[in-house]
Automatic annotation (TrEMBL):
It comes from Oceanisphaera ostreae. It comes from the Bacteria. InterPro entries: FUR, Fur_C, WH-like_DNA-bd_sf, WH_DNA-bd_sf. Belongs to the Fur family. Homodimer. Pfam families: FUR. Transmembrane segments: none annotated. This is Ferric uptake regulation protein. Keywords: Cytoplasm, DNA-binding, Iron, Metal-binding, Repressor, Transcription, Transcription regulation, Zinc.
């Protein structure tokens, strides 16, 4: 889906939710939606400074907090990075596969994994308030490249 279309969808959702999609939030949304995979806040800040020369780290972190709250991005905790979510207009379970070699991050939506995880939490008397399931390994491309060496 094109970035302008994603931006249009996000703008509509913000209006429906009664939240402000400020120019800085829009800029960070546009920047992160153009990345393939996860990106750090400081890499986003470098790009944002091209659009907003006075941008500082708190500027990006506030925008990212907003985007996280609206479901437009996911935080990849183990990388301290952020991943654009193309399915932001629906609540969905999420699991991440992270390649240790090239940094590729694949977002999965497996309801069975989510239900099993929630069931185990319940059996242990635990209430989940925030969930992040991340698995590290090697993607197919890196496995293939490694075999050729």
């Amino acid at each position: 889906m094109s970035i302008p279309h994603q931006l249009e969808r996000a703008d509509l959702l913000c209006k429906q939710r009664g939240v402000r999609f400020t120019p800085t939030r829009r800029n960070v949304f546009t920047l992160i939606s153009g990345y393939q995979g996860a990106v750090s806040a400081y890499d986003l800040l470098d790009k944002l400074k091209e659009l907003e020369p006075n941008a500082k780290p708190p500027t990006v972190y506030r925008a990212l907090d907003f985007l996280l709250a609206q479901g437009f991005v996911h935080k990849v905790e183990s990388l301290n990075a952020f991943l654009f979510c193309e399915h932001f207009d629906e609540h969905h379970p999420m699991q991440l596969l992270i390649c240790n070699q090239c940094g590729l991050v694949v977002e999965l939506h497996d309801e069975a994994i989510n239900q099993a995880f929630e069931q185990q939490a319940k059996l242990n008397g635990f209430v989940i308030t925030n969930q992040s399931i991340e698995a590290h390994g090697q993607c197919r491309q890196c496995q293939t490249t490694e075999r050729q060496c």
